Amino acid sequence: MTKVQASEDKDYVQSLVRGLEVIRTFSRYKPRMTLTEVAEQTGMTRATARRFLLTLVREEYAETDGKYFALRPKVLDLGFAYLSSLPIWEVAQPIMRDVVNALHESCSLAVLDGLDIVYVARVPTERVMTIGLSIGSRLPAYCSSMGRTLLAGLPPAELAAYYDRVKIERRTERTVANMVALKDAIETSRRQGWTLVDQELEMGLRSIAAPVKNRRSEVLAALNVSTHEGRTSIETIKTRFLPVLLDAAQRISAALPQ
Amino acid sequence: MTKVQASEDKDYVQSLVRGLEVIRTFSRYKPRMTLTEVAEQTGMTRATARRFLLTLVREEYAETDGKYFALRPKVLDLGFAYLSSLPIWEVAQPIMRDVVNALHESCSLAVLDGLDIVYVARVPTERVMTIGLSIGSRLPAYCSSMGRTLLAGLPPAELAAYYDRVKIERRTERTVANMVALKDAIETSRRQGWTLVDQELEMGLRSIAAPVKNRRSEVLAALNVSTHEGRTSIETIKTRFLPVLLDAAQRISAALPQ
């Protein structure tokens, strides 16, 4: 649907969509912006951007010193509404902690959103001394272990729609090179019930993922453990990590509220 | 400002505010709602709630099976915009991990938002086997160590405004009983440069906090370590935890981008 069609539809609240765009415009690289900058970033007129910014300020989602605008912590309530609406969250965290205790590697949980995976939980290992932003982070699905696990769990029509839209970009020399290789890899994931991705996202990074399913065997999320190639061989991942991961994914699946 | 005044103001985009209310209506207790339920929860007409919900669905912030509506992970992008706009985030995490490694207790970072503190980062210790939702969680400022630290850092006019609005509720038998006691406690925090709160939020819970400041000595955030009364005496908190905490808060302050 194009913007023009959308704005003609009486059920479409354009002000909401544009206001959300204003929120999303703020980032690590642009934490504070003037009215002019927000207008430029969003393609709005200054007058329109001003109305949205002042509304966000009045509702305490943003603040201003008269010149610069910045977001306020109330914005977290919006993402918090999503996270706290996931029944998987509370169930998964203690089980993920068990995985980290057993393997001394970070354990993450992600869901699929369009072409990306989005992290919804992460338990870091103490080994990792720097952590980037985790919850809410996005990665392309095709070259991550959780992504392939989630794609393998899609109904055929949705997977076909994904294949139509995805564009493969080789992130490392090991990234799947084309659609044939990707389809093969996803077929393998489905058949095996787990996915090992070796340095396709980033050189040095290895990870293994398994699906979390509901009682109807629909894949709700993917659980993974990631490690470094210099620390853990493929063999160790398969013999030591995989059983722990499969057990944890199954425990989370079984513990989900019905 | 009342709703009526607000809606009459031409700079106020009511559709944005109501749309954000719709997002916030979803929660752990109401992860999936019908149109009727959303209308009831938000006090909107069904027709209005429907327009907002369909807009959120079309923009992929929500999904529906025709009857129930639920949020989608794209909502996390909104909170992510805020978190990633905080320069403190990346600087603080590795230092917080050092604190956890040294003390084997969880370390958190929070900012003030109105009457509440809001968690913006948390590094759990392995000891804690169940973790609730952390980032985005809110607690009343008056009875938490990070809250009192942040209040002690407010300019006098803002602190006076806080005192006008706050309502003290005794969460435990140890919670400050009245405004005189609260003002005393905050004065002590300011004088000491740290805050110890002993079971005022919840029986058994002890925590100690210190301010993170920018170069102009403005308090940007509070850093804390929390423990259990059965595990750690007040004496141990003061002699062993406090130096580690103060050192970490100072390192974060010093490392902040200018």
TrEMBL record, chains A, B:
It comes from the Bacteria. Residues 74-258 form the IclR-ED domain. Coiled coil: none annotated. SMART domains: HTH_ICLR. It holds the Pfam family HTH_IclR. One of its GO terms (molecular function) is DNA-binding transcription factor activity. Residues 13-73 form the HTH iclR-type domain. Keywords: DNA-binding, Transcription, Transcription regulation. GO terms for biological process: 3,4-dihydroxybenzoate metabolic process; negative regulation of DNA-templated transcription; positive regulation of DNA-templated transcription. This is Beta-ketoadipate pathway transcriptional regulator, PcaR/PcaU/PobR family.
